[in-house]
Write a structure and sequence with these properties.
The protein is an all-alpha fold. It is built from 13 helices and no strands. Helix 5 crosses helix 8, helix 6 crosses helix 8 and helix 7 packs across helix 8.
């Protein structure tokens, strides 16, 4: 029998082990991000400055980036600066990369988190409805909607929304972004189409996964026993079935969180939103690889954090995972 007195200690050990693993992964990713600059064919300083740069400009940039030092010295210097929050200076914006990213990252996080919440709430709810109303008209309707949501390309959905709700009906703005502090009503209107475009595919995927997991769980003996005891259907679904079906759903939410936050390039480009995805695309086009380095590291660190939260949630949902 499981000793509840060990509950807190087991959970603390589990979290500590996962935290150490996450730090190790971030350390490896930091080296990969640092190496991006050295994967560029030829001289990175010449590539960033272009063929019209003078020898003095190239040499100055090489010294600024420590490219004239041994590789391990460069990495140690770069990592020390990164830990202090200094990613270097952008050759496009002529200012600290940290300041440039801090203007774009909150926008991507804001839209991504809301889109994830929107897709999780409605996707899980729709999946539960499909499972408990299996083979009904409602199940078929939601399943068809889910298939369409997965199949429709995000950029096409965005362009369709711009044409229909922006140009034809004039209900919604077609580009840009406004923070709620600058006007909640306008911010809501500006955010509707980007959030729907970001969240709809995730909603459809979550609905399908929830339906599949719930169908597997509600056929178990303990669910039939709960029904035989006369428990209400919503009690059986929410207290017994859903919690045991959550592991694959939580895993999928973790994957979708990474995609929504780090992979919002198309949506930000279609709606001209100054988020991190659009910033990295422009930086790559302008050969501002210092921004690309920082962006890759930040997105990877966010992904690792999300994975850590997902792993910790495993230990809360199913204590058996703490011993694996």
């Amino acid at each position: 029998m499981y000793n509840m007195n060990n509950y807190g200690g087991d959970l603390f050990t589990y979290i500590t082990r996962r935290l150490i693993h996450t730090i190790f992964v971030i350390f490896i990713i930091s080296f990969i991000s640092f190496s991006l600059l050295h994967f560029i064919p030829g001289d990175p300083a010449l590539t960033m400055l272009g063929p019209d740069a003078t020898n003095e400009q190239i040499e100055a940039l090489r010294k600024e980036l420590w490219l004239d030092r041994p590789l391990h010295v460069q990495y140690a210097h770069w990592l020390t600066k990164v830990i202090q929050g200094d990613f270097g200076k952008s050759i496009t914006y002529y200012e600290n990369v940290t300041s440039v990213i801090l203007r774009s990252l909150p926008i991507s996080l804001y839209l991504g988190i809301i889109a994830l919440g929107f897709s999780a709430i409605f996707g899980i709810s729709m999946g539960i409805i499909c499972a408990i109303r299996r083979a009904t008209f409602l199940d078929n309707l939601i399943s068809t909607f889910s298939n369409l949501g997965i199949a429709i390309p995000i950029f096409w959905l965005g362009l369709l929304g711009i044409y229909l709700f922006g140009y034809k009906l004039g209900w919604l703005p077609i580009q840009g972004f406004i923070w709620p502090s600058e006007g909640f009503g306008q911010s809501f209107l500006y955010s509707i189409m980007p959030i729907v475009c970001l969240g709809l595919p995730s909603l459809a995927i979550l609905a399908r996964q929830t339906r599949s997991s719930m169908l597997e769980v509600i056929q178990q003996d303990y669910i039939r026993t709960a029904k035989a005891k006369g428990l209400r259907e919503h009690t059986i679904i929410l207290r017994h079935a859903l919690k045991n079906a959550l592991i694959p759903i939580v895993t999928l939410i973790g994957v979708l969180a990474r995609i929504l936050i780090g992979g919002s390039v198309l949506v930000e480009t279609v709606f001209n939103i100054p988020g991190l995805g659009k910033l990295l695309v422009n930086a790559a086009i302008n050969k501002d690889f210092i921004i690309v380095q920082a962006g890759v590291l930040i997105i990877s660190a966010i992904t690792c954090f999300v994975n850590l939260v997902v792993d910790i949630s495993y230990g809360w949902i199913d204590p058996r995972t703490r011993y694996e």
